[in-house]
Amino acid sequence: MAPCLGFDPLKERNPKVMQASRQRGFTLIELLIVMVILGVLAAMVGPQLFSKVDDSKQKAAKVQIESLGTALAAYRLDVGRYPSRLEALRTNADNERLWAGPYLPKDVPADPWGNAYQYRRDGQSEYEIISYGADGQNGGEGIDADISSRQ
Asked: Membrane spanning segments where (predicted)?
């Protein structure tokens, strides 16, 4: 078979192929500029988002303390006094005859920072539940501030 004179498919240019070959990807400089812009935005927005996380943990601790207070009130109505420890809200740890619990659907939770709540009982009629905040120690300010049922 003889080749057709004047037509060579390898040399013939397809307009669609030529347009695609003119389109190019992003250069390294363009990618670096975009990454710098994203880094600057993250540096500006990040701290504001983390402060919201700290505020939400403090609010969650307050809600948990209120929930524990409600369970303590139900315990006191049944037994006549507050328990010696918070675990008595889930199991009859004090071997009370009038215990009608469990007063909590799950075990006593840790505070939002993973520390145990501190429970103090002053006689028959007063109690205090405390979360020591982010630092887990008595005292502090900001996110390290103590959160108490008496506040």
From this structure: 28-50
Q: What is the pTM of this model?
A: 0.64
For 4, half-sphere exposure in the C-beta direction (CA atoms, 13 angstrom radius) is 4
> 64-101: buried (b, 16+ CB within 10 Å) or exposed (e) per residue?
bbeebeebbeebbeebeebbeebebbbebeeebeebeb
At 34, list the tokens: 């975009």
> What does 99-110 look like in DSSP terms, one character per residue?
-----SSSSPPP
H helix runs in 1-151, sequence order:
15-22, 28-79
Q: Which of 96, 103, 140, 133 is nearest to 118 (CA)?
A: 133
**CA 126: distance to chain centroid?**
32
51-148 CATH, one of 2.40.128.110, 3.30.429.10, 3.30.700.10, 3.30.70.2740: 3.30.700.10
CB atoms near residue 149 (< 10 Å): 18
In tens, the pLDDT along 51-93 reads 677 778 889 999 999 999 999 999 999 998 899 899 999 998 8
